[in-house]
Amino acid sequence: MSSRSYDADRMELGVRVWKSWIWPGIKILLVAVIAVALVKIAFFSSAPEESAAVPTGEIVEPMISPVLGTITNDVTLTANVQESPAVEAKVPMMGTVDAVYATQGGRVEAGDVLASIRNEKTPPAVAPTAPDASGEAQPAPAAEPEYEWNEIVAPTSGTITKLNLIAEQQVSVGEAPVAITPASFVVKGTIPPAQLYRLATTPTDAQVTITAGPAPFTCTELRIASGAAAKSSSAAGDPTGASGAAETTDTTTVTCRVPAEVTVFPGLEANVVLHGGVAENVLTLPITAVKGQAETGVVFVQGADGSIEEREVKLGLTDGTLVQIAEGVSETDIVLEFVPGADQAAPEDCFIDPMSGTEVCGMLGG
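The structure assignment produced for this chain is given below.
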């Protein structure tokens, strides 16, 4: 046997041993190592347990100080244009209609006489005459009747839209047989009653802007009425009052007269601005920092030791965003920006007009 043949046999034997024993053993060992590793990962993790999370942050309430500023107290509400309501002419005394001078649908001026009324006076007692030749007393002669007179006059200029009068008709004091509709217009809207706190004094006029209409104008004879008074009428002297009996309502209405030279039409929408005053160079705080919005309130002041204490303050004007602090705090005080537990939502029935940036309250007047 040659040496080459011997080497070949030995190599072949080594290959058979490798394939039959060594390689299968290595594979078994690798599988075992992997299995042990998986078991350890699944059931015997060596990572230390993480400790429970402990909060490290701190809630800090936003704080502010009063600052000097100017508050323009304008209350803005939506309204619409309406025809002036009819005004009643009432009977001034009890009696009988002597003559009617007005006609249904006729035009009258303020002060015109609409009808005359007479009331017969009670005649004084007359003593009987002396007895005649027969000795019998004669009855006293009938006295001529005497009357007192009065008139129903037009309380305003306009068109007669109701006329319930005829000659010889009996009438009583306070009856309203005549109604006159003025040839004019009013702007009427509603305002949330809580907004009345912002009007320290009732204005006599308002600034009105008609939607898609003429330039802003001053609306005069402004009236603010709530409850049944909002739709009750009086006789002469109240051309902006509603006619008829009082009607109970829960709304507060604002009504003012449109100047005769301004052209408007019933149903037009309008913005009404009530000027409630201006306070300049006064201490102010956001309304979110004050508990209470009218006359008096409470703020939450931070003490020297960091504690919070309640402090009463006296309030002045407000524009719906800022409120004047008349007494109770100074510029050096630090207060909570938000009243604890207060609802931060916008006031009910109010919103910020995106066009003008002013606070608008109320709905279209009815």
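Interim note for the steering committee: The mean pLDDT is 81. Residues 152 and 314 are 53 Å apart (CA to CA).
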